[in-house]
Write a structure and sequence with these properties.
heterodimer, A: about 220 residues, alpha+beta, five-stranded antiparallel beta sheet, two-stranded antiparallel sheet, 8 helices, 7 strands, B: about 775 residues, alpha/beta, eight-stranded parallel beta sheet, 30 helices, about 15% strand
Chain lengths: ~220, ~775
């Protein structure tokens, strides 16, 4: 591949307000029920998260040989996006601080972190999707190492290709965990708009696009 | 000529980008450019030569990503040898008449350091040490550390380079769009740390184009008393193809502006090539570097400046006279200490004093650990407070920033011990105005000692601005004149010597009633006479009110915003006391639970409160959770509320301490997620179990050792990812061997019952309540 890694940076304003319903879902709690989510939302706003994405677009498909599930997603795609997104270490610091003060607040912050990094990915994918639409294309859903049979071991290659430590300050531990922890890597396919119904349906909840029916976080 | 001698009178011109030039010659993405030193020496040499031809004084070797994580030690040595040789050859081939030097280039190691990553500080120091000594061995003229985006890694690199060689070390960081390093440090924080550690030049590279980085450069120029480096990109990369938008001519003009503002070392980074270096005017007069008089300390996010507005240093992390704190130290209860730190930050202090000295504990390891753990939860700069120089060195070495050092005195022995450490690691030192003859009775003599300390520090190259004088607060109850002497000495040091001052305010009232009142008045008097910092108790409302009032009266609080908010804003929180303890616990209301417990203690026996109020409440919540009528956060809130109530009861009746069996919990080696483990710990404690929490990323032998030493009947292991389950299995195996009596419960996102059986655990804890039930079962 001869692709140049690009970096996109976003602000709180670009990503939009924290979706409290999603936060509650990640916490496994249907209603707010006396939880002070707002207090932690304010803490996160003060922290000024650094929303960063490193990515490139390349001809053909990549990693499709590594995973049958991914190959299915990528079927019919003529190009691929590879992306890595992170909120930066500030989110981890907040969670660590509150885990000493109140484990419940730490849990809320952890869920907010998940909501934020997913929102970042959604925003990025929307941007890329609108680029693609103007070229007569559309994007598939995101597919990440750890989903289905797409092994976590692929992280090492992704990090090398995207030069994550230098580009966005995202590193990989020896046991293939990402640090900062609130981070996502993913592959997305690009297909001709006429070829197939576009898979990135913004009107549907992400969970409806996922095969894991047993997942306890599956949206209702 | 040596590079530093040249720099004294001249601007140094660095080179520009390397990677893109090699790519144009056929380097493939994903291929290691460092290997080209060996495989394509002529190509690399030619790039260096083009830079020398364009007027560079310094080219950096093609070793940016070379380190022992990517290459074997033998390969690495071959690469560095070839890289330095290529650069030196280019210097001799070029016909440029300027002074030419070769810098050993060192980039980030690609790993995030602990506590948020998994790379040990000392491993990072060794990694950088190896690179610097190889550069030195093969003839580099200086070490160039660049594109660092984390302050602790920058420190490790500078320390490694300094320990490995006597060569000059230049250090350059990469900033993001908010003018901070990727992990949060501001330019002034970096200037404070790096200058104090003895970097020879510091500055900024990569990041953006010159124009976007001028704010960062201005901050460097404001605070730094050493040469400033500027090596930006060729503007911003296009969002489509990554090409940069600034022409060589515009780049040259922008760099010229930076030189006129005072920058002394200039070059280009991503997107620049020899044309950009050629475009920078070479006949510019260097601006003289002024000595700046800021007394700074820093953390991994920001610097605190002494001598302007008064600084509050929280004194609560100190065992003196605190029974609970001593107990926490003896039992290794770091969490208690961390909470003291967080609480003081919330009260508004700017720096935390850290003293963990107790005769019966190992102060070296404890101080190091507390400093490390505190820096994971608070971004305040720390004041390392110890008499033990070994503990001081251990803490200063890994401290992320420039610490305050408490303290040195005019005793020769003290200065001989402390100043070498401050010289090596940097620091703002609290200097006590006493010497071998004790504490002088007069102000003159105290000032004399201060002068002696300044002179001695100078021998080490420690500047006066890095000394802050404590003129020693003595109890007025023992000597009615004591406060006057202290204040007079303070004022003279501030005015005559021009130095900053600090006092431990609370000593003044020793032996008197209503101590807060006297302390606050003395504090006000000291502030008026020029006190720069107070070591004080931020829980004292009198002291805090004095501080905010002083600032308001001195015109340091525009529109009295802080005063109005902090002083008049102190109101009692409204608490709903219309419920009983049981309800407060079920609803997870901490404050109400504490108030109700206190009330009940007046009429009810402690054990009855626990058995008739708290336990039934917890049962309601536990059952609700198991029946899926209540959810995890509610279970946790109830647990936190009941712990508040327990806390109140324990304070009154220490015998109510938990006596249940001890359970060891840990997140296994390689796993850095601990939120689930923390939840299980909270709920277990709530059901009366004593939990020993070993934290995250814990090696199997550490877990086994603790289980054996505590004879723990149960251990809980957590792993979140498939890649860390093998570490869990290994831990289970070791536990079976070393602690056959111990039951093992495992949990975590990727586990299930089948998996748990497969790796040989006794029980799969699907959630916190399931683990509690199992713990109860085996403890019966």
């Amino acid at each position: 591949m001869e692709e140049i890694v690009l970096v996109k940076k976003y602000t709180d304003k670009d990503i939009g307000p924290i979706n409290v319903k999603e936060v509650l879902r990640y916490m496994g709690q249907p209603e707010e029920e006396g939880l002070d989510i707002e207090e932690m939302v304010k803490e996160v706003a003060k922290a000024k998260l650094g929303y960063r994405v490193a990515f490139f677009r390349t001809e053909g498909t990549i990693f499709a040989d590594e995973s049958r599930n991914l190959a299915k997603v990528m079927a019919g795609c003529h190009s691929t996006y590879l992306m890595a997104a992170t909120l930066g270490v500030e989110m981890d610091r907040l969670i660590a601080k509150y885990s000493k003060v109140s484990p419940t607040k730490a849990l809320i912050l952890d869920a907010i972190g998940t909501e934020r990094v997913e929102a970042l990915c959604d925003r990025f994918c929307l941007d890329m999707n609108s680029n693609e639409i103007s070229r007569g294309n559309s994007l598939t859903k995101r597919y990440s190492p750890g989903y289905g049979d797409f092994k976590l071991e692929n992280q090492a290659e992704i990090f090398k290709l995207l030069d994550c430590p230098k580009r966005i300050g995202l590193t990989l531990t020896d046991s293939l965990l990402m640090s900062p922890t609130k981070s996502v890597t993913a592959v997305m396919g690009v297909l001709k708009s006429g070829d197939k119904k576009p898979a990135l349906k913004q009107c549907l909840h992400k969970c409806t696009q996922c095969d894991n029916l047993e997942c306890e976080f599956r949206g209702r | 000529m040596k590079v530093l001698d040249y720099l004294k009178e001249n601007i140094i011109y660095l080179d520009g980008g390397m990677g893109t030039l090699l790519q144009r010659q056929g380097l493939k993405p994903g291929e290691y450019p460092e290997k080209w030193n060996i495989s394509h020496p002529d190509v690399v040499t030619n790039v260096h030569k083009e830079y020398f031809d364009a007027g560079s004084n310094v080219v950096v070797t093609n070793t940016f990503g070379a380190n022992c994580l990517k290459f074997s030690h033998e390969e690495l040595e071959d690469i560095v040898k070839a890289a330095v040789t290529n650069a030196k050859k280019a210097a001799s081939l070029s016909e440029g008449q300027q002074e030419k030097f070769v810098a050993m280039d060192i980039g980030p190691c690609g790993k995030l350091l602990k506590p948020y990553g998994d790379f040990e500080f000392e491993s990072a120091v060794s990694l950088f040490k190896e690179l610097a000594s190889l550069g030195d061995k093969y003839g580099a003229d200086l070490i160039f550390i660049e594109t660092m985006s984390d302050s602790l890694e920058t420190k490790a690199a500078l320390l490694g380079a300094k320990e490995a060689t006597g060569l000059p070390v230049f250090v350059s960081n990469a900033y993001d769009e908010s003018s901070k390093l990727m992990t949060g440090a501001s330019p002034s924080a970096m200037v404070a740390m790096l200058e104090a550690m003895g970097a020879d030049a510091i500055g900024v590279n990569c990041s953006f184009g010159p124009d976007q980085l001028m704010d960062v450069i201005d901050e460097y120029l404001k605070y730094a008393s050493i040469p400033v480096i500027f090596k930006p990109n060729a503007g911003l990369p296009s969002a489509v193809d990554g090409s940069y938008d600034l022409s060589p001519e515009d780049f040259g003009k922008d760099i010229q502006k930076a030189i006129e503002a005072g920058v002394r070392v200039v070059g280009g980074c991503c997107g620049t090539d020899p044309r950009y270096i050629r475009a920078i005017p070479k006949n510019l007069e260097p601006k003289k570097i002024e000595e700046k008089n800021f007394s700074l300390v820093s953390s991994y996010t920001h610097a605190v400046s002494f001598g302007e507005e008064p600084i509050l240093i929280g004194e609560r992390i100190n065992p003196t006279g605190k029974k609970k704190f001593k107990e926490a130290l003896r039992s290794g209860d770091i969490e208690y200490i961390l909470r003291e730190g967080i609480k003081q930050q919330e009260k508004g202090v700017h720096v935390l004093d850290v003293n963990v000295g107790l005769p019966e504990i190992d102060e070296v390891s404890m101080l190091k650990k507390v400093v490390y753990e505190l820096q994971a939860v608070t971004d305040l700069p720390l004041q390392i407070d110890t008499m033990d120089e070994e503990a001081m060195e251990a803490a200063l070495r890994e401290y992320n920033g420039k610490a305050m050092v408490n303290s040195v005195s005019g005793k020769q022995e003290s200065m001989d011990k402390v100043f070498p450490l401050v010289k090596k690691y940097g620091g703002l030192v609290v200097c006590l105005t006493l010497d071998d003859d004790g504490i002088p009775k007069t102000a003159e003599e105290r000032v004399k000692i201060a002068e002696k300390i300044i002179a001695e520090a100078k021998k080490y190259g420690i500047k006066k601005k890095d000394l802050i004088f404590d003129t020693l607060t003595m109890a007025v109850s023992a000597d009615e004149k004591a406060a006057n002497v202290t204040l007079e000495a303070l004022e003279r040091i501030r005015n005559d010597l021009g130095s900053s001052t600090s006092l431990g305010v609370s000593n003044v009232s020793f032996g008197l009633p209503n101590r807060d009142r006297i302390n606050a008045s003395f504090f006000a008097m000291a502030l008026e006479r020029g006190l720069s910092a107070a070591i004080m108790n931020p829980n004292s409302i009198d002291m805090m009110n004095t501080y905010y009032s002083f600032k308001a009266l001195k015109g340091m609080d525009p529109a009295f915003e802080e005063y109005i908010q902090k002083v008049t804003g102190i109101t009692e929180e409204v608490v709903n006391t219309n419920m009983d303890l049981k309800e407060a616990v079920i609803k997870g209301l901490k404050k109400e639970a504490a108030i109700k417990a206190k009330e009940l203690l007046e009429t009810m026996a402690p054990l009855d409160i626990i058995n008739n109020e708290i336990i039934p409440a917890l049962d309601v919540v536990g059952k609700g959770f198991e029946e899926k009528k209540m959810f995890l956060p509610q279970l946790m809130m109830a647990a936190e509320a009941s712990q508040e109530a327990f806390g109140v009861i324990k304070e009154k009746v220490p015998a109510a301490e938990e006596t249940g069996p001890e359970i060891v919990v840990a997140t296994v080696k390689g796993d850095i997620h601990d939120i689930g483990k923390n939840i299980v710990k909270l709920i277990l404690e709530n059901y009366g179990f004593k939990v020993i929490d070993l934290g995250k990323d814990v090696a199997p032998d550490v877990i086994a050792e603790k289980v054996v030493s505590e004879k723990a009947p149960l251990v809980g292991l957590s792993a979140l990812m498939t890649t860390t389950v093998p570490a869990m299995e290994e831990t289970v195996k070791l536990l079976r061997e070393k602690a056959p009596w111990c039951k093992i419960v495992v949990g975590g996102a990727v586990l299930n019952e089948e998996y748990a059986n497969m790796i040989g655990a006794d029980y799969y804890g699907k959630d916190a309540m399931a683990t509690v039930r199992y713990a109860k079962k085996i403890s019966q």
